[in-house]
Amino acid sequence: MRLIIHIGTPKAGSSSLQVALSVNREVLARNGILYPAIGRATHHTDLAAGLHGADMMRDIDLRRNGGDPRAVEHRTEAAWQSVADQVRRHTPETVILSAENFMSLDDFDTLRRWVGQIAPGAEVTSVAYLRSPVANHEAKISQRLGRTSGVRLPGYLPWHARLVRWRAVGQVHLRDLAAVGDLRVDFLETVQLGLSSIVTMPERNANVSLTGEGCIALHAVLSNAVKRDAASFVEYTRDWRARLARAEAALAGSVPLRHVSVTPAVRWLILDAWHDEALALRADFGFSFDEPELYDRGEIDRCLAETGAHELELVESDLLSRFLSNDLEAAMQLLAHAAQQSERRSDMVHSVKRALRKILRRGGA
Considering only the top CATH level, what class is 2-131+156-198? Predict the structure, then answer.
């Protein structure tokens, strides 16, 4: 038996892959491949949720389990038992597990115990797709605005240290997201040659993805929002994201709209933060991002100095427009257009006007 564990990473197409695997569960089974069903989820997040230390568990997993770390652990135990039962029932040649939070788990002893139980003696391979640092940071901006109005500063994720730990489970294969084309096809072909040609590829599933101007407008709204609980904040964000998406569609062509793009200074801060991590991935895994400057310490230092990046003193309370090189005027037009969609127009328009004034005063600072 083979066990293939897709371990992420975040913002690298995991959700689309998981939906494709879930939709094609029966086709995969006919080809000797089990993609276990855990409840109604398309992913296997519960398998990893309880394998984190109590202080490292994700907020979403704790909220889902009444804030009780032990309840998260029980949920994870039940998920692994469900997988074990499905393996016994189907006796597949290959088992696929997929969850982004596999990458960050801590309890490898329990992981190995469960792996040994569901697939004794199996050949275990973990697969991770990595997105280049600048593109990764840009992709996170819109997603983060779904949970908070804060803007995370450039930094690296400790992928190297985590991937080294996965070597104790089995082989580790790293794939460059920028080089593989469609991640779903790439993964399926890794599992079994020709497999992608016999499955149905569903439409990519994703939250509404805004342009950089749309993200600046959304950030202005959230920065002026009344404090609220997590659930209502997410709903409020979703509502405004939908309005801004409609505004983008209505104004497309009449205002300049571009993908989320960080300023040159922020770009070099990201490359600076990732430099050592990138070198470690290249040295230990033979993996290189398609971003030559990332490996050139002299070029990074020179451009940090030229852009005055370290003097910017960016903090999470800053406006998003300080991080992005997108068009502020276009962002303001989107925001005004989206505000007109509100039934509570007077209050909302006043709030929007305050946000616009704030952007004008501090956005380019």
Answer: alpha beta
